Amino acid sequence: MKQSKIFEPIEFKDIKIKNRIIMSPMCMYSAIDGVVGPFHMAHLGARAVGDVGLIIVEATAVSPEGRISPNDAGLWDGKHVEAFKPIVEFCKSCGTVMGIQLAHAGRKASTNVPWLGEKPLKFTEGGWQIQAPSPIPFDEGYQIPKEMTQDDINKVIDDFTNAAKRADKSGFDIIEIHAAHGYLINEFLSPLSNKRTDKYGGNFENRTKILMEIIESIKSVWPSNKPIFIRISAVDWMEGGFDIESSIILAKMLKKQGISLIDCSSRGISPKAKINIYFGYQLDFARKIRQEAGIPVSGVGLITQPEFADFILNSGIADMVEMGRELLRNPYWVLNAAYKIGTDIQWPKQYLRAKR
Ligand SMILES: Cc1cc2nc3c(=O)[nH]c(=O)nc-3n(C[C@H](O)[C@H](O)[C@H](O)COP(=O)(O)O)c2cc1C
Questions:
Q1: What single string gives the DSSP state of each residue in 84-95?
Q2: 183 in active site
Q3: pLDDT tens digits along 45-98
Q4: 261 Cα: distance to centroid of ligand 1 (angstroms)
Q5: How far is CA 124 from CA 51, 110, 120, 127, 328, in A?
Q6: How confident is the model at residue 3 (pLDDT cuts 50, 70, 90)?
Q7: What residue ranges define each of the domains in the chain, with the CATH number in brackets?
Q8: 3-state SS assignment for residue 213
Q9: Considering only CA atoms, which of 97, 100, 99 is closest in space to residue 18?
Q10: Rounded (5°) CA angle 105-111-114
Q11: Which string of b and e fits 2-34 if b means at least 16 CB within 10 Å?
């Protein structure tokens, strides 16, 4: 019987995760007024049955105006808690730890769902006023965002905090703050999208201020025995943008704040970014952050093979491996990986007759 690090449990605060595989947060654009439904039960439930260690539920908007599309999941109201509860309960009954990504889309809000073109929505098409650190549109054809005032910033901090409270009430054990992919927090972090001259713009400390304030505020309501993760875009892939050196400094600050893991993604601040994509193309960012900041990290991006996942974990590149599209293609990836590698793991009792 071969042992693989994939199946080695890991603990963050009081939360024990049975293996090292994370289902990466993926917007399904299938909620109504932010409310998740039967699709989400089937979608997330299948990956829990498939033995994923940690599911991080899709980018979930902390306010209606923070949605990417009208069909994003939300956590700005008690009705969202009621919708999430049975899904979280079922997935946890499979032994999967449930996390949720809390998000605000900033200047990339108010767009159509991908299968309708992912284009900015006009007000006449159900779109809404968008906001960002500076009045710079994401791309041609996008709305010019409203430059956020101190009141707007305070509201966003409150919205994240209240969403964290609701995540706890829903039964989630981990929250991940979405500070990546060119959405609101990333827009504050990046010098390309943040041209403010007040205390939230200019130098590195000022650009990271909103994230630090959000974390401080969330910590006042989120149980101290449950972990908080942060997803960052480790690099903008743009000249003059957020870079790996900035990410390492940020990771050190986040470690001091008690953040349990940095989820190392990249890109999203501009459609003009030139990205070099290959298998595991973001892993070197994870490795550097882990090494230099001494904080647990997850690696993500075009990881599909169990042997590759095992290598990432064994070579110390990352503490957890995160998969998106491969888990959409194959919800039973973990069960199949155990068979392929030759490790004996517990199968769902209902599926035992199919165990290989
Ligand atoms: C359908 C889809 C939706 C996504 N939605 C999110 C999201 O809500 N939040 C996020 O941080 N990343 C999102 N991503 C990015 C994934 O989490 C992941 O980082 C990316 O797909 C790279 O991993 P992969 O190559 O394993 O798919 C999404 C990706 C896909 C394919």
A1: HHHHHHHHHHTT
A2: yes
A3: 999 999 999 999 999 999 999 999 999 999 999 999 999 999 999 999 999 999
A4: 18
A5: 44, 12, 11, 7, 34
A6: confident
A7: 5-354 (3.20.20.70)
A8: helix
A9: 97
A10: 105
A11: eebbbbeebebeebebbbbbbbbbbbbbbbeeb
- Cβ within 8 Å of residue 3, ≥6 positions away: 343
Could you tell me the pTM of the whole model? 0.98
User: Is the Cα torsion angle 165, 170, 175, 176 positive or negative in sign?
Assistant: negative
Determine contact, residues 275/262, Cβ cutoff 8 Å: no
CB-ligand 1 contact for 178 (6 Å cutoff): yes
- Tell me phi and psi for residue 307, to 5 degrees: -65, -40
Per-residue tokens: 73: 């999941």
Nearest residue to 147 (alpha-carbon basis) of 72, 215, 201: 201
Q: What whole-number distance in Å separates Cα of residue 156 and Cα of residue 100?
A: 18
pLDDT 10s digits, 204-228: 999 999 999 999 999 999 999 999 9
| CB 43 less than 6 A from any atom of ligand 1 | no
* Nearest atom, ligand 1, residue 326 CA: 26
Residue nearest to atom 15 of ligand 1 (CA): 26
Provide the token pair at 291: 């090494």
Q: Which of 172, 14, 184, 143 is nearest to 83 (CA)?
A: 172
Q: Among 23, 24, 40, 275, which is best to mutate for testing ligand 1, by the most ligand atoms less than 8 A from CB?
A: 24
CA of 70 to the centre of ligand 1 (A): 18
- The DSSP-derived string for 45-83 is HHHHHTT-SEEEEEEEESSGGG-SSTT-EE-SSHHHHHH
How does DSSP assign 278-343, residue by residue? -TTTTHHHHHHHHHHH---EEEESS---HHHHHHHHHTTS-SEEEESHHHHH-TTHHHHHHHHHT-
Residue 282 makes CB contacts below 8 A (sequence gap 6+) with 234, 264, 265, 266, 299, 300, 301
At residue 323's C-alpha, the angle toward residues 313 and 193, to 5°, is 105
Spatial distance between the Cα atoms of 228 and 175, rounded to a whole number of angstroms: 5
Taking alpha carbons only, the member of 162, 165, 173, 175 closest to residue 261 is: 175
Predicted pLDDT of residue 356: 84
What confidence score (pLDDT) does residue 320 get?
98
